[in-house]
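Page 47, continued from p. 46.
Same chain as before, 80 aa.
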Amino acid sequence: MPRTSPDKTEQQNRVYRSVIEGNKALYNLTDEFLAKKLGISVRTYHNRMVNPEMFSNGDNRILVEVLHITKEQWDKIGGF
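Result:
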């Protein structure tokens, strides 16, 4: 059966996750550290990474600061 291409939302979610994971690796940060900065449990952090729309604007502001997300990266992920 042929693969279907992901819809626009899934494509944006993949880009969002790749930016987060890439910067997390670049700055050697852990899921535990990011969850603590966000004030949530690690399990909640993982759930939100599966469905990035669940991150609030406040969460995204914290992630931008902690992960040093550039304007180019922010624009790439759609500026959630």
